[in-house]
């Protein structure tokens, strides 16, 4: 498969997946405008500024590492951990985006009719996003060749910020504070 075609596939995954995530948020906010504050769960007001700052840095970080992968990584030359090809990014991005699109609808369903099954789905969804995000960071860290150095370092820092949001704040902290208990 040509270099250009592989990059286009990854770009299409990001466009479709990004639209699905944004669409799920817009739909959720429009259908449940009176319940959006409930999305915070039991997160204390004292750490909400951390969340807000982290969401912003995670979004900027996502753009930084995705830009690096799309514009600086040559798909036919890319080797991840001496074993995987550029196509590994397809699966990692697809997991992050697909399961991110499920979070808000599942959470609003949970708010409307709490159940152990929905709570498990919300937690599994967040765990998959967090694990796939860590997978993206690991793939970037093990990527060869990785240049230019400034863009690569920026991508790593951006991906680390994204992982902090998804794997730590969302999958661990948010679920720990959420008021539902099994």
Description:
The protein has helices spanning 3-31, 48-71, 88-112, 116-141, 149-177, and strands at residues 79-80, 143-144. By secondary structure, it is an all-alpha fold. The protein has one domain. The protein has a two-stranded antiparallel ribbon with strand order 1-2. Helix 1 (3-31) packs parallel to helix 3 and helix 3 (88-112) runs antiparallel to helix 4. The protein is elongated, with a radius of gyration of 17 Å. The model has no long low-confidence stretch (mean pLDDT 94).
- Helix share of residues? over 70%
Order of neighbouring strands in the sheet with most strands: 1-2
Mean pLDDT: 94
Number of strands: 2
The sequence of SSEs as H and E is HHEHHEH
Instruction: State the shape.
Output: elongated
Broad structural category:
mainly alpha
Q: Could you give a short account of the major beta sheet?
A: 2 strands, antiparallel
Into how many domains do the coordinates divide?
1
Q: What amount of the residues lies in strands?
A: under 5%
Work out the radius of gyration: 17 Å
Low-confidence stretches: none
Distance between the termini: 48 Å
Q: If helices are DSSP runs of H or I spanning 4 or more residues, what is the number of helices? A: 5
């Amino acid at each position: 498969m040509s270099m250009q075609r592989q990059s286009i596939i990854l770009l299409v995954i990001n466009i479709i997946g990004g639209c699905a995530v944004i669409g799920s948020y817009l739909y959720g906010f429009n259908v449940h405008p009176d319940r959006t504050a409930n999305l915070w769960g039991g997160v204390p007001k004292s750490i909400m500024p951390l969340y807000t700052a982290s969401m912003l840095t995670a979004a900027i970080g996502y753009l930084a590492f995705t830009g690096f992968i799309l514009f600086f990584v040559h798909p036919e030359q890319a080797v991840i951990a001496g074993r995987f090809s550029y196509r590994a990014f397809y699966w990692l991005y697809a997991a992050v985006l697909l399961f991110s699109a499920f979070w808000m609808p599942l959470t609003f369903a949970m708010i409307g009719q709490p159940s152990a099954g929905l709570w498990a789905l919300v937690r599994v969804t967040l765990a998959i996003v967090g694990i796939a995000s860590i997978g993206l960071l690991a793939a970037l860290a093990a990527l060869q060749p990785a240049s230019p150095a400034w863009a690569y370092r920026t991508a790593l820092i951006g991906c680390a910020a994204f992982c902090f949001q998804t794997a730590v704040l969302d999958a661990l902290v948010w679920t720990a504070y959420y008021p539902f208990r099994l």
